Each structure stands twice: as C-alpha cells, then as structure tokens.
Recover the amino acids of this structure.
C-alpha cells in the first residue's frame, strides 16, 4: 500500500518544527509502524536527507521507549497497544497519517518524534521505590501477600513509563503514571514504611516538573498501552489526603 | 508553621480535592434551591412561593449562609481558573490533529467554558432576584413571573441552566474521583446517580422559565 505520511520534523530542542509530507509506496500490511518508519528512513538516507528520529528499543511492546501520536491518537488507533505493536494492516492504501511527538511542557521535544522524558525519572526518584537493606535476597514467600493484592499491584506495575497518558491527557497531566507507582507500592507490604512520604513527594515532584492536574477525562487509561486502571488515580488522591491529614508527614 | 496546609492547597491533588468538595457542596445547594423553587408550581397564584421566600428571608442565619455560599462559589471559581491556567501551561503546544481513545466527553472538555456561562447566568440571576432585593421581597412570585415572562430573560435562564446541566453531567462522578472515592462496588452506581442528578436538576430548573414563558398559572 501507499501511505501519505505527515510527520513532525524538528532539528533540535531549540529549532522551530513543522509538519512535512512524505509519500511512501510499497508498505506491507505485515509491517509494524516502526518498520514502516525504518523503510521511510532508508529512502530518506538514500536521497541524502535526514532520517526521522524516533525512540525505540525492544519493539515487543514492553519497554516503553516508543510512542507517537498517530492522527491524534496515542500509539495509534488500537487499544492497549504500543506504537511498535501497531501494524500497518490497521490502515489502508492511500491513508494519510499525521505523526506527532508527545506534547507536554514537561516533555520537551529533542528531535522529530523524540521527547525528553527524564521528568518521569525524577518523579520515580522522588519515591517510586522501596528502601530495603541490601544483602542476599529474602526467602521466597517470607512475606505473605494475598493473591488479589498481588494481582492488583501487578495491574499498576504494568506501567512501562511510555508517557502516553501525558500525551493523551487534555491537561498534560502525569497523574496516571504517578498514581500507578503509588497504587502499586501501596498494595504491597514492602511499600508500607514509606507510604505517606512517597505520595507527598511524588506529587510534589510531578507538580514541579510542570505537568497539569487531572480533570477526570479518563482519556489516559483508555490510551494506556498497558491498560493501567483509572482507580489508580483515585487511590493516589486518597493516599494524598490520608498522608496530608492523618500522618505526621510535613508537620 | 502549618506548611503542610500550604503544601496541600498548592498541590494539584489538593486543589482538585478542594474543587471537588466545594462542587459537591454547591450541588447540595442546588438540590435545596430547586426543592424550594418547586413551590412556584403550587398553582395557588404564588401563595406557597411567597410564604417560602419570606420564611427564607426572615431566617436569622441567612446573612451567614449567604456569605458561606458566596465563599463556596468564589473558592470553586478561583480553583477552576488556577487549575485551568496551569493545565494550559502544561501543554504550550497542542496537536495539529486531535483524536481520542473514546473516554473524554463533550462535558469533560467544556467544564471551564460551561462554568463561565454559569457564572454569567449567576450574575444575571443575582441581579434579578437578590440585588434588587426590595422589589423581590415585596412580591416574590410576581417578580419571578414578571422577569421570566420576558422571552429574552427566559432564554438567558434556559441557556444558563443547560450549561449547568452539561457541567453537572461530568461534575459528580469527577468530584468523587478527585476525592479518592472509587470502589468497584459503588463507583458505577454513583456515576449513574451523578448523571441522573444532572438530568433531574436540569429538567427541574429549566421547567421554571418554560412555565412562566408559556404564561404560568395566570393563563
């Protein structure tokens, strides 16, 4: 099939970007979206032009590196799918695809479709971990965890940090990402000692990084390639209220 | 001292919780307001409504209640303006094509604009029945009848109430989520109740300008 690609091109973080059009013939329906971009880049390199930069790593839908808006939809039209797992069979001959990077003040565009997501790292570093004594690993099952809790924690832990929630949110909020970490660790006994400090510190960092506030569109969870449930955000809100009013944190 | 309160009210989560709380209280006010206003439909030439209006205006606690209500409105509006500004700042550059995965709704996307329309309506409404207090208190039912038999005023009221209905259809479920109230047993029912409440309040309020526009009990 032949596709009309309209792709955001931006030289570097200081340059003004613009949408550029490319006609790409010979696209196989078996290609993934990233393979399609690879073909485009080979053609561009052949013509001596600058290839389109995009993030990618595992190409198996588990690493969270890739991601772009395709016709205004995070990771394209499919649900619970990363960009690398989006296949061209989803489109038909002659389709026009508008491809843009995530848009957020906290995700500055570095080049073309590549954005700087280190703000997520800083939210994570603010409390998205458990402090444990190092040494040999503890015995398996030495801390009993009910199966339901383990599974709920895993639903939240599935977050791969791709940033799609921020891109999908009309407010550019990082609530689903932050909430996934808070809700995940809240479900587990290992997360309890730092429970209050974690939520306060992670929300503080999230705000300082310039992300917006949730207005409950729930677009994030619909766009999430891992389907992180929206109750994570309610859990984070509850944890935040609890830590603010019923703990000694911040006295 | 009290830095934790400052931290709370300046955080995105804290502000949203306060917005939810003020919003829920305002919904409570709307329910009470509608319940009282339904006495307009008593069909007794306004006796019931006049009695209700006089009972309210002679309440000794009324000035305090009015201040509290004004603070609720002002707090809710202040938080909305601040949150909306910060949310716009969080996405300085938008998308050239906007799509969806199907969750955001017309109501959720227009909370701020519908809020502005409601505020404009509220100012008009206060002007009609609160700032011209003497005229209203002299003959409550007659002044409602006089104001709303004017097609222009009735249209403005209906527009304001429709905006309120759209605003409310997102408000209740959203407020509960912002306060962290989400439970698989209750949330689906509560969200449905929120929608029913929005429809009921809209129909209840909008029936008033329609009733008087069509002539009220005098016809």
């Amino acid at each position: 099939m032949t596709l009309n690609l309209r792709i955001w091109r931006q030289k570097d973080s200081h340059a003004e970007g613009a949408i550029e059009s490319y006609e790409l013939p010979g696209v196989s329906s078996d290609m993934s979206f990233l393979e399609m971009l690879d073909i485009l880049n080979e053609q561009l390199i052949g013509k001596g032009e600058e290839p389109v930069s995009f993030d990618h790593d595992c190409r198996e839908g588990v690493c969270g590196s890739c991601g772009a808006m395709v016709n205004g939809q995070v990771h394209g039209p499919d649900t619970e799918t990363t960009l690398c797992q989006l296949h061209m069979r989803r489109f038909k001959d002659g389709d026009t695809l508008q491809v843009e990077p995530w848009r957020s003040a906290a995700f500055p565009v570095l080049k073309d479709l590549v954005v700087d997501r280190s703000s997520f790292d800083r939210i994570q570093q603010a409390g998205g971990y458990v402090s444990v004594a190092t040494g040999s690993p503890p015995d398996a099952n030495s801390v009993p965890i009910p199966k339901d809790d383990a599974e709920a924690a895993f639903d939240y832990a599935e977050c791969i940090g791709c940033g799609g929630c921020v891109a999908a949110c009309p407010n550019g909020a990082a609530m689903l990402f932050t909430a996934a970490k808070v809700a995940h660790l809240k479900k587990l006994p290992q997360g309890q000692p730092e429970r209050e400090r974690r939520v306060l510190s992670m929300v503080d960092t999230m705000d300082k990084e310039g992300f917006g506030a949730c207005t409950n569109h729930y677009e994030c969870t619909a766009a999430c390639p891992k389907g992180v449930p929206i109750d994570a955000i309610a859990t984070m809100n509850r944890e935040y209220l609890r830590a603010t009013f019923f703990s000694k944190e911040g006295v | 001292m009290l830095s934790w309160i400052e931290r709370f009210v300046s955080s995105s989560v804290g502000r949203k919780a306060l917005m939810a709380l003020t919003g829920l209280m305002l919904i409570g006010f709307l329910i009470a307001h509608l319940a009282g206003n339904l006495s307009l439909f008593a069909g007794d030439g306004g006796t019931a409504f006049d009695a209700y209006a006089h009972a309210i205006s002679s309440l000794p606690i009324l000035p305090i209640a009015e201040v509290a209500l004004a603070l609720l409105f002002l707090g809710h509006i202040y938080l909305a303006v601040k949150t909306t500004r910060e949310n716009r700042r969080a996405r300085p550059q938008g998308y050239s094509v906007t799509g969806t995965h199907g969750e955001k709704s017309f109501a959720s996307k227009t909370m701020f604009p519908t809020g502005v329309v409601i505020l404009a309506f509220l100012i008009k409404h206060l002007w009609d029945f609160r700032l011209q207090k003497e005229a209203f208190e002299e003959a409550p039912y007659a002044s409602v009848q006089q104001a709303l038999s004017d097609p222009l005023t009735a249209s403005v009221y209906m527009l304001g109430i429709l905006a309120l209905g759209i605003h409310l259809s997102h408000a209740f479920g959203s407020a509960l989520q912002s306060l962290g109230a989400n439970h698989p047993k209750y949330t689906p029912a509560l969200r449905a109740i929120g929608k029913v409440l929005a429809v009921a309040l809209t129909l209840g309020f909008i029936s008033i300008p329609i009733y008087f526009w069509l002539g009220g009990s005098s016809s």
In short: The helical segments of chain A are 33-46, 118-125, 147-157, 164-168, 175-186, 195-208, 219-223, 231-246.
